Amino acid sequence: MADFTTSNTTKSAVRKLAEPLADVTAFDNIVQGVVTNNPFQCTTYNAGGSDHPGVERSRQGYTSRIVYQDAMAKTVALITVRAPTIAAFTAAANLIVVDTDLATALGGTPVRDTGNEKYAATLRCHDVNGEIYFVNFSREQVTLTSFSDEAIRNRVETWADTVAALG
User: Fold this and answer.
1) Positive or negative, the Cα torsion across 22, 27, 33, 38?
2) What's the helix, strand, coil split of the chain in %, to 5?
3) pTM, to two decimals
């Protein structure tokens, strides 16, 4: 009977943040800063006949949570909405909060639970050595996946050390 043999080895690494990122603006500033400034020295590449930048967002999602409280500040209802962009996230949450018919139906006053909002974005990065790896951002951690060259981890870690919110 044949055995599986390792054809290549990919790694992952996680950096748990000391404190969750403050809000969606702080989150986006970090993620967009990587896309704009390319601190990992990624290179453009062609795949499937399409040119790609060295760093690009491959996935993102934002979850807002609105709680409805009665006169005693007791939670009587909860709405969670997931959106594909920050603009949609903000618009949806704002629309829910000002919907008086919904508040009446649920029997409470809406309040955004910003402390429990979730943000996620994945960046696809093309290293100068040809590797494609991913940097996944959430409010609580940064994960580096699908890399094999330790120089990639070193570059990402060196950059993260310069971002106070990622300490």
Assistant:
1) positive
2) 30, 40, 30
3) 0.89
